[in-house]
UniProtKB/TrEMBL annotation:
SUPFAM superfamilies: Fibrinogen C-terminal domain-like
Domain Fibrinogen C-terminal: 271-491
Pfam family, one: ANG-1
Species, as recorded: Sphaeramia orbicularis (orbiculate cardinalfish)
Annotated InterPro entries: ANG-1/2/4, FIB_ANG-like, Fibrinogen-like_C, Fibrinogen_a/b/g_C_1, Fibrinogen_a/b/g_C_dom, Fibrinogen_CS
Keyword Membrane recorded: no
Protein's UniProt name: Angiopoietin 2a
GO cellular component, one term: extracellular region
Entry coiled-coil feature ranges: 161-213
Superkingdom to which the source organism belongs: Eukaryota
Signal peptide residue numbers: 1-18
Length: 496
């Protein structure tokens, strides 16, 4: 066996193997180098003396070498080479095992060092983590506080929002109600506008009819004026004849009074003073029980008026104040005309406010209003007490004790209203009711009645705000066919 001296061993961490053979200047030794990764191992091996001697002998010989001896030497060399190779393999395995152990130790040391470093790093990380955790805890506390405040604000906002929603719902309902009312009013306005258009159209037609009527009446007035001239002429002749008759009668009386026929007593002729009546009740009491036109004298004056007396209705004795039945008389008159009266007692007429005021302030009177419509129905309204104030009080009306069939309540407003005409506005409305609804009446604020309004014929009497109306019997838009207002003393008995 060969003895190997290990002269130099150098290593470093790494993997991989290599093998190199080289000569050395050192006498009698061989150098072997093994490369294992970045590490290298160098071995110096002694030379075999026998081999050297034999080799030297071989060199020094001048003669040929024996073939057997050469073969033996070659065989020995091969054996030696094989042994060296095996030894080298073992050495290589040893070196590799050593290297593995060293590597394990080195790795363990590195792992230990790395573990220490990791522990230190972990400690630092734990410290930093604790610090960060503390900061995060503070931040979390702040966030929780801020979140709590936000939640409170959100709760308050939610409560406010609920209140606002409720208010919004209430306002929405109010708006819807107002919208419904507005729609209803718009429909009413449209209906009123349509009605107004119809009324305007009717008024235009009536205006045309009135213009035609005025033309005819103008012609009639011309004819009447001519007849009046003739009557005036005839009246002059009659007055002359009457004067002649009076002279003849006076002469006859004088002759009779101065005659001496057989001493008989003188014939005296006296003239009776004519009887006067203040109302139709007095006419009835005097024995005149036929309905017709009579002359009445205003109380405490010599003023005479023609009036129509109704001697048939409810025992008779009624003095007629107003009558409407054909529309031939215009009732849209002035204050003075309503004061004195107008029209013909046998037709449509107004007796006169001044006469009625004087009459009703002498004693207590009843008022009866008779009405008829275009369908053949009739009704009446009666008041147990009726009077008119003087002109200074605008002929204010006073009524008490209502009864009748033309409405459950009175259509003349109470307490008393002042009388108004187109030129004397005494009502309680800024619209001037007399001009708006036509005629003179106790309007109050354009109240529920006006028996002196425009007269409309059948077929044109509906939806007339300015017609002859008695609201609590036929409504505000129905114009009646005929009306009669009449009075008599409250204590009238109806017996002669």
């Amino acid at each position: 066996m060969l003895h190997v001296d290990l002269l130099v061993l150098s290593f470093c961490l790494g993997l991989g193997t290599g093998y190199t053979k080289s000569s050395d200047t050192t006498v009698g030794k061989r150098q072997y180098q093994i490369q294992n990764g970045p590490c290298s191992y160098t071995f110096l091996l002694p030379e075999q003396d026998s081999c050297q001697n034999q080799y030297n002998d071989q060199v020094q010989r001048d003669g040929p070498i024996d073939s057997d001896e050469s073969a033996q030497r070659l065989e020995q060399l091969e054996i030696i080479m094989e042994n060296n190779t095996q030894w080298l393999l073992k050495l290589e395995n040893y070196i590799q095992d050593s290297i593995k152990q060293d590597m394990v130790q080195i790795q363990q040391s590195a792992v230990h060092n790395h573990t220490a470093t990791m522990i230190e790093i972990g400690t630092n990380l734990l410290s930093q983590t604790a610090e960060q955790t503390r900061k995060l805890t503070n931040v979390e506390a702040q966030v929780i506080t801020h979140t709590t405040r936000l939640e409170r604000k959100l709760l308050e906002n939610a409560i406010s929002t609920n209140k606002l929603e409720k208010q919004l719902i209430v306002q929405t309902n109010e708006i819807n109600k107002l919208s419904d009312k507005n729609s209803f009013l718009e429909k009413k306005v449209e209906e009123m506008e349509e009605q107004r258009q119809v009324e305007l159209k009717t008024l235009r037609e009536e205006k045309e009819q009135l213009q035609v009527l005025i033309l005819r009446q103008t012609a009639i007035i011309g004819e009447l004026e001519q007849q009046l001239l003739k009557v005036s002429s005839n009246n002059t002749v009659l007055q002359h004849q009457q004067q002649q008759l009076l002279d003849t009668v006076n002469n006859l009386i004088h002759t009779i009074s101065t005659g001496t026929a057989r001493g008989e007593s003188t014939l005296a002729i006296t003239t009776d003073t004519p009887t006067t009546y203040t109302d139709c009740a007095a006419v009835f009491k005097s024995g005149n029980t036929q309905s017709g036109v009579y002359t009445l004298t205003s109380p405490n004056t010599t003023l005479e008026v023609k009036a129509f007396c109704d001697m048939e209705t409810e025992g008779g004795g009624w003095t007629v104040l107003q009558k409407r039945f054909d529309g031939n008389v215009d009732f849209h008159r002035t204050w003075q005309e309503y004061k004195k009266g107008f029209g013909e007692p046998s037709g449509e007429f107004w007796l006169g406010n001044e006469f009625v005021s004087r009459l009703t302030n002498q004693q207590s009177y009843k008022l009866r209003i008779q009405l008829s419509d275009w369908e053949g129905n009739s009704g009446f309204s009666q008041y147990d007490q009726f009077s008119l104030d003087s002109e200074a009080q605008n002929y204010r009306i006073h009524l008490k004790g209502y009864s009748g069939t033309a409405g459950k309540v009175s259509s003349i407003g109470q307490p008393g209203s002042d009388f108004s005409t187109k030129d004397a506005d005494n009502d309680k409305c800024v619209c001037k009711c007399s001009q708006l609804t036509t005629g003179g009446w106790w309007f109050d604020a354009c109240g529920p009645s006006n028996l002196n309004g425009m007269y409309y014929q059948q077929g044109q009497n509906s939806n007339r705000f300015n017609g002859i109306k008695w609201y609590y019997w036929k409504g505000s838009g129905y114009s009646l066919k005929s009306t009669t207002m009449m009075i008599r003393p409250a204590d009238f008995s109806g017996s002669l």
